[in-house]
């Protein structure tokens, strides 16, 4: 068996430092050690550390001030989509509430994507929904198809920002989706959803499709919260 490729030095340093921030070693408001000491702690060279710190400042993790200690930000308030992408790569530190927040965001965005997807690319969306008839009765098959449907709605909506937002949650959704679709009841509910959505798309009912998606996303969010107790 081949071992996974090692991280590039900057990514290695990022992983180490972000992990230290997330596990509370350097909480929001904390001052990082001087560059030389931090480079030794991270196990990288000072040039590598500088590059890493600049990238993390761009994402909103830290604030660098010349001649002063680097300070850890309240990153959920100062960060952008880059932080979301980085957080989803640190699964061990992602709380259940983070997943719930994503599901709430999805409930707000996906219905609008569906409305425009039906309006702009009805036939392409309909072709994808027909593929649900061939779904295998297992968690992996459903999570792959379900995430593919969400990405399809984003792509067909005509707004590239929707796809970029979803991309940052891809790894997290695929992991949580496997757990969600382990339950037969959830697979049956989703299969019924694909059929109802397909009917709305066949009728070119943009608003109807949007409402089907809204109700389904809100129900899925409630089911997930009941599963994890948030």
Automatic annotation (TrEMBL):
Among InterPro entries, the record links this protein to: FadR_C (IPR028374), TF_FadR/GntR_C (IPR008920), Tscrpt_reg_HTH_GntR (IPR000524), WH-like_DNA-bd_sf (IPR036388), WH_DNA-bd_sf (IPR036390)
| Gene3D superfamilies found in the cross-reference section | GntR ligand-binding domain-like, Winged helix-like DNA-binding domain superfamily/Winged helix DNA-binding domain
- Specify the HTH gntR-type domain's residue ranges: 7-75
Keywords, alphabetical: DNA-binding, Transcription, Transcription regulation
Question: Which SMART domains does the record cross-reference, listed alphabetically?
Answer: HTH_GNTR (SM00345)
Q: Does the keyword Transmembrane helix apply?
A: no
Q: Which PANTHER family match?
A: FATTY ACID METABOLISM REGULATOR PROTEIN, TRANSCRIPTIONAL REGULATOR, GNTR FAMILY
Q: What is this protein's record name?
A: Fatty acid metabolism regulator protein
């Amino acid at each position: 068996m081949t071992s996974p490729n090692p991280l590039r030095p900057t990514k290695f340093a990022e992983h180490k430092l972000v992990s230290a921030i997330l596990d509370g070693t350097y909480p929001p408001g904390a001052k990082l050690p001087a560059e030389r000491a931090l480079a030794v702690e991270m196990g990288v060279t000072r040039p590598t550390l500088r590059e890493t710190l600049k990238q993390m400042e761009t994402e909103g993790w830290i604030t660098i001030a010349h001649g002063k200690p680097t300070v850890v930000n309240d990153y959920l308030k100062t960060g952008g989509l880059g932080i979301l992408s980085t957080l989803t790569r640190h699964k061990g530190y992602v709380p259940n509430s983070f997943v719930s927040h994503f599901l709430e965001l999805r409930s707000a965005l996906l219905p609008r994507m569906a409305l425009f997807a039906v309006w702009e690319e009805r036939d392409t969306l309909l072709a994808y929904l027909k593929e649900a008839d061939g779904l295998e009765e297992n968690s992996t098959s459903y999570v792959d198809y379900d995430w593919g449907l969400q990405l399809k709605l984003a792509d067909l909506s005509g707004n590239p920002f929707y796809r970029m937002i979803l991309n940052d949650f891809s790894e997290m959704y695929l992991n949580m989706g496997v757990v969600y679709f382990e339950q037969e009841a959830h697979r049956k509910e989703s299969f019924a959803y694909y059929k109802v959505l397909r009917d709305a798309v066949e009728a070119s009912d943009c608003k109807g499709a949007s409402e089907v998606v809204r109700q389904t996303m809100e129900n899925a969010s409630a089911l997930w919260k009941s599963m994890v107790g948030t």
